[in-house]
Amino acid sequence: MEFNELKDFLDFKVDQYNRPNFITNDPISIPHQYSKKQDIEIAAFFAAILAWGQRKTIINKCNELFLRMDNQPYQFMLNHSDTDLKRLLGFKHRTFNDTDLLYFVSFFKYHYSQSNSLETAFLPQQTINPNYLPEISNTDVELYSSSCMLTEFTIDGFTAEKALNHFRAYFFSLPDFPLRTIKHISSPLQKSTCKRLNMFLRWMVRKDKCGVDFGIWNTIPTSELICPCDVHVDRVARRLGLINRKQTDWQTAVELTAKLKEFNVNDPVKYDFALFGLGVEEKF
Fold first, then answer.
1. Are 145 and 130 in contact (CB under 8 A)?
2. pTM higher than 0.70 for the full model?
């Protein structure tokens, strides 16, 4: 397709899928069950991290998880007792198990004891102890030191790459994190597309009147989000000529987003609705 034809086509598909009826069969339905900001953040984070496999299964597992927390995730994170934690034992989805879950709970308790929003976890404000950085080389430690371990944050310097690298370091900054849990939080340093975290950021940051994304975070700019690049988005984007890179990694997601910025420089990730919908619903 020519540029204008492709833009019109994708804009039409965004309008088709960025609607409330999209919510029902998607993991984003999980945070839509809540109204308190922190409950939405926690529910959305788990829904994104557990987004492997069939969407129906993901939704069922998330509902099971939050039922174990009496459907009050924020209160559970802050006020749980050791007895309460026993209710989480036995939870499993794919390779995510109760060992991983208990560390996630520890992180949320730590973070929310200092901040009233998960957004700050993605802003490189905290100083990270390099001794706690998992599975990274000396070069990577230098990269964290130069680009992420800042004592002050200016929004002018925000990039999704810095934010995601920082978040992974911060997430695993608690002592004695389980080594097995590392695989559940990706970052560009691992050359991952970071599909789940980019999807979570889209949910939290994008603002429109369509009622799907929440837009409850106000610091991270929508223009700097990276398009979640799962198998469906990757396949459709390649078919439409939006991706040329042979492999699928962080740079692929960056390449796709740069192409989408040609259609909308301020909100490139809105086209995630079009690409994902074409792939999942229309088998494009």
1. yes
2. yes
